[in-house]
Amino acid sequence: MKRVHGGNIREIKEKYNLKKIIDFSSNINFLGFSTKGFQAVKDGLNEIQFYPDSDCKYLKEELANYHHIDPRNIILGNGSVELIYLISKVLGSSKTLIPSPTFIEYELAVLAAKGKPQFVRLLEKDHFQLNKKEVLRGLDEVQALFLNNPNNPTGILYPKQDLLKIIQAAKKKKVFVIIDEAFMDFVEDEDRFSLLPQATRLSNLFVIRSFTKFFAIPGLRLGYAVGSQRLIKMLVKFQEPWTVNSLAQKAGVFSLKDNKYIQKTREFIKKERNFLFNKLSKIKGIKPFPPAANFIFIKLMSANAEDLKAKLVKQGIIIRNCSSFRFLNNKYIRVAIKKHKDNLYLLKFLNKYLDQ
Amino acid sequence: MKRVHGGNIREIKEKYNLKKIIDFSSNINFLGFSTKGFQAVKDGLNEIQFYPDSDCKYLKEELANYHHIDPRNIILGNGSVELIYLISKVLGSSKTLIPSPTFIEYELAVLAAKGKPQFVRLLEKDHFQLNKKEVLRGLDEVQALFLNNPNNPTGILYPKQDLLKIIQAAKKKKVFVIIDEAFMDFVEDEDRFSLLPQATRLSNLFVIRSFTKFFAIPGLRLGYAVGSQRLIKMLVKFQEPWTVNSLAQKAGVFSLKDNKYIQKTREFIKKERNFLFNKLSKIKGIKPFPPAANFIFIKLMSANAEDLKAKLVKQGIIIRNCSSFRFLNNKYIRVAIKKHKDNLYLLKFLNKYLDQ
């Protein structure tokens, strides 16, 4: 599988001579970053002349406070991608089960660690839910399991009870479970679904989280993982020093303090998610899947993702063609949930090109 | 060997109730960062809401221009440490020769890659120069060689001709050579010593450089490596995406454009290096080694590094006790070259405590 991520806006603008582009291919909080976080970065710019705190002391304490856990259960990373690769490296050349389609980096991280990725196929007939039986059977063959919850690109949320059963079975089989909750902050009633509190107690579970999506600071690179203190120590031992830059640490601390922004994001996302999903459901020729996060996965009944993408780009709209995801083809696209005006603009052209 | 790096200023300030601390343990350009680089970061802060360019296109072009090489010979990293670890990972479980004392991360990177570090001891009787014979003999036993030039903590610069002979011999023995030139920008007549141009042509050489020391942006994390296009491609294949944050890329591009700052740094460092070395040479009880970079390595004839450090910290001066470096003991310290006033302050207390 090749690494294909969001589009290069600058190149596309130049190529099509566009003034404005709305990037529905990028799943970032449409409200942008927290102004408190931004201000802290601005005020702390002088810090770039000092080494960052390798231990991320203040940020760990702030996160511990935010999640009601102990700072010793947390490790910070240069984006969650660093931690995906670090965990894979520490697990070594393991066979790893990856229910797919999903985020490509799990597979690439396993390969980079000379491990062997194995796949359980998420099926449309199961509404892209985990097939528990298949996963449990798959555990016999592997040493690790990588999950994305809610899953990118399908937007599907896995029930906590199912996951707990899988983790329990995995423990008996000495299988390590890594759950990437990069989009969990967008989920309504997050606490009912997140396994972050469990990760501090269970001996075979890591939960990965990110500041990239919800807090909208992909450019600064900031992610973290939660696990038992024993597991966290093991990771820290293998981690390079100073991977988290000073400004990312500042942004993290003060974004977490920005309750108003966090609340507003949740409300706006919920409202626009419902609006966009309902409107998309009414367009003939497509089938949107119920979204749990801040993006919507869509099946094209007769159109072709590449053709549709090409038509939309001329209108300044970028969507994600999902054919680069394992087990998907050019019948699937993904769109981020944006502000109301942008969502209306997308709907206008989807209606125009698809509702025939 | 344990990882011991510079001191934590904040903790020390609180512990000793100090108003000001001059940190001679940290080898950063005492002029601070480039104002052009800083301004670019400030102006570009909005970029944190977008993913960084994984390819670092503009920065690569700027570096290529700066060094008169092809952008395809460059790979960027989240600090040079990322590249030290990445190269070690790609070389795999190799035996690696590391002339020591030197920067601890080479050894730790080799160990993290499940390789075996081996050591050639740099000797005081050789003025801590490379013993070419010993190194050449050592090449028979290993698959890689890590060098720091000028070397930290000794400040010694290795002659280009010696290094070229070693690289040539290494090639015949299928040994890979990695030269970390993190402090090369401070060297007078840098072009006579740097192997960066050679790295684009030779098939078994990587040269690593850093923005941390000369450009004084350790908090942003920015380093790079230069090698043949074939080698660079190999590294890129194993590199995680988005490791270099957007602001580091901005700072890099515009710091390189700041000719005045670069010129001024070179002049000031040269002047203060000569001043401090001459004054240190006159203090009885210590022996400073001729410095090539922006720090001075000092042997204590009778004092003890820990005691001296404890005395100085009460005056608000932090020095580096070198006893954590392999093959060194508590008879060695390292001090950074700072601005004139600070250097005078250091000299005052070294004279007071040592010149007896």
Task: Break the fold down into its secondary structure elements and pairings.
Two copies of one chain form a homodimer.
Chain A: H1 9-16, E1 22-23, H2 35-43, H3 57-67, E2 74-77, H4 80-91, E3 95-100, H5 105-112, E4 116-121, H6 132-139, E5 144-148, H7 160-172, E6 176-180, H8 196-199, E7 205-210, E8 223-226, H9 229-238, H10 246-256, H11 259-281, E9 286-288, E10 295-300, H12 305-313, E11 317-318, E12 320-321, E13 332-336, H13 340-354
Parallel strand pairs in A: 1-11, 3-4, 3-5, 5-6, 6-7
Antiparallel strand pairs in A: 2-8, 7-8, 9-10, 10-13, 12-13
Helix pairs in contact in A: 2-10, 3-10, 4-5, 6-7, 11-13
Plain-language structure description:
- The structure is a homodimer of 356-residue chains.
- Chain A has 356 residues and is α/β, with parallel strands linked by helices.
- Helices cover 40% and strands 16% of the residues of chain A.
- Chain A is built from 13 helices and 13 strands.
- In chain A, helix 7 links the parallel strand 5 and strand 6 (176-180).
- In chain A, helix 2 packs antiparallel against helix 10 (246-256), helix 3 (57-67) packs parallel to helix 10 and helix 4 packs across helix 5.
- The relative contact order of chain A is 0.18.
- The interface between A and B is large, with 45 and 45 residues.
